[in-house]
Amino acid sequence: MNFLFWNACRRDISQEISELIEYTCANILILAEYDGEINIILRKLHKKGLNYFSVPSIACERIKIITDFDPNCIRHLREADRYTIKEIRLQGESPIILGLVHLSSKLYSSDDDQLQEASYFRHDLEESEKDAGHKSTIVCGDFNMNPFDKGMVSAGALNSIPCLKTAKSEVRKVKGKEFSFFYNPMWNLMGDYKEPPGTFFYRSPSYVSYYWHFLDQVILRPGISERLNKSTLSVLTKAGEVDFVDRYGKPKTSDHLPLFFSLEPNKEDIYEESMA
Question: Is the pTM value of this prediction over 0.85?
């Protein structure tokens, strides 16, 4: 199962999107800040012999979903202005909860604001897990935070950590209250050992500037993390002959670069976490 996420920066990049879907054989494409007509993308894919569908939104216009799955396999759970939570139920495979986010930008929100917003999202996500009866959960999108920011690592927010062994073996306890973990594999892509060193480039005029940021991420509950094909987790700079970066390696098609990952096939009832 192949996933793509891309913040399109409100640009008309329908051709690049269709090329990217064909290149990666994505089953699900999640778009943020895409103001174009989804039907244009669908028609371009149809001309390539690829049948994709759009998933209707209810309250979240910031996120668009395109898939080659039967839309009847995708069940709506919860939705707000900046996130949507779905459940994917494919025949013969255990269900997956998919949380998709486009959280508030640092340009307009303080760290504390982002922390609070992440906490609200976590609450809705946990309620969705209770409704669905499992915690095979993936959260993907533009968090507008780096993996080390408060909203990503705080126990009361997304509580995501870079060590799967720790995430699988422990529940974080803070002042007598327990918090379940997310595993965040994005830490493994940070730095320049594997290009590009982020999904977003911004040179801050302040004394502290990271230059490259990983605002676009995927985090997973420990139980479903076993299905992540780690070799596929990547930030894409091209699709075939279509480049998404300039000669300096910085994003040019959008101000973000697309994120790709895949899950291994799974039979029902394997890796699902207990709701206890």
Answer: yes
Alpha-carbon torsion, ordered 132, 133, 137, 142, to 10 deg: 40
Residues 6+ apart with CB under 8 A from 153: 147, 159, 160, 161
99-128 mean pLDDT: 95
pLDDT in tens, 47-94: 999 999 999 988 999 999 999 999 899 999 999 999 999 999 999 899
> How many other β-carbons are positioned within 10 Å of the β-carbon of residue 61?
10
What Cα–Cα distance (Å) separates residue 209 from each residue in 82, 192, 197, 212, 252? 26, 16, 14, 9, 20
Contact of 32 with 254, CB cutoff 8 Å: no
Question: Is a pLDDT exceeding 50 seen at residue 154?
Answer: yes
Residue 92: Cβ within 10 Å count: 8
Stretch 85-112: mean pLDDT, rounded? 94
The CA–CA distances, whole Å, from 11 to 123, 203, 212, 255 equal 32, 21, 21, 10
* Residue 21, both tokens: 């879907």
Angle at which helices 38-47 and 14-24 cross, to 10°: 50
Residues 6+ apart with CB under 8 A from 70: none
Q: CA angle, 96 as apex, 92 and 100 as ends, to 5°?
A: 145
Alpha-carbon span 64 to 55, nearest angstrom:
7
* pLDDT for the residue 268: 53
